[in-house]
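User: Before I run my own analysis I want an independent prediction to cross-check against. Here's the chain; please return only the structure tokens and, at the end, one sentence I can use as a sanity check.
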Amino acid sequence: MNDDLLAQPGSSNTDPRWERATIEKLVFATIREQQSARRWKIFNRLFWLAVIGALVWLVYTSNTAATISTPHTAVVDIKGEIASGAEASAENVVASLRTAFDDAGAKAVVLLINSPGGSPVQAGIINDEITRLKGLHDKKVYAVVEETCASAAYYIAAAADDIYVDKASLVGSIGVLMDGFGFTGLMEKLGIERRLMTAGENKGMLDPFSPLDDNQRAYMQQMLGEIHVQFIEVVKRGRGERLKETSETFTGLVWNGQQAVKLGLADGLGNLDYVAREIVKAEEIVDYTQRENVGLRLAKRFGASVGEGVFHAARAAGVSLR
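Assistant: Structure tokens:
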């Protein structure tokens, strides 16, 4: 009789080898399943370690400027709003400038500017650092304006040895402003009462839901005037005798590139390639601008997604994260 028939559970002549074979199969299947689970666990860990390692490498390489030994023109972009936390913040621009100045191959540094302005504090920090680095390294600094170099952007450009513009660039806006809104009239029409409590008579100054006091207005105007004087002094010191001052120079007006050259706010017409080739005499251009790269953005997103997952898990478990 066939052994398989003897091995059937319903058979009266059950072979004990069948039970042993079945148990062995179950044991081996369990072992294989455990091994497979361990392999997936190890793979999972290695995969995430590789991802994190790649992100760290991308972030590190993006913030580590290579030293270029051959003669070249160093470029630092100043684009968009000049503000803390922005791409054109003092922190980013100053770090880029230091790297560019430290490179022995950089024959000069070009500030490639396209900005409507921003914070006078951030601009002042950058202006002061340019002046310091110029004295420390004995290198020329040139500002090259693309579309716009206004307000705080011109505050920075004033530290350059020479400023080059396009004939249609917008240059100037040497002034200071502070803007806001007032809703007191609207609140009266709607029957809304503002209940503001302060300790200190000027603590609620510039509150948009309260009337603007004449004394507070005068105080703020004086402060803006003092900052304006600081701006004017920086421009005069940077431009020197080249500046052809008129009654409108410091009124906040902007001029096109050709007018800026005539007024001594700029030195000539030219773009980045022209300055590198004809002025610096080093045609090779190397960008030293520190930017938030793909790796850093991915790292931030990865961190945010992990945090969101923890938050939802905690909520599901009834844990409060408030």
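Sanity check: The longest strand covers residues 140-150.
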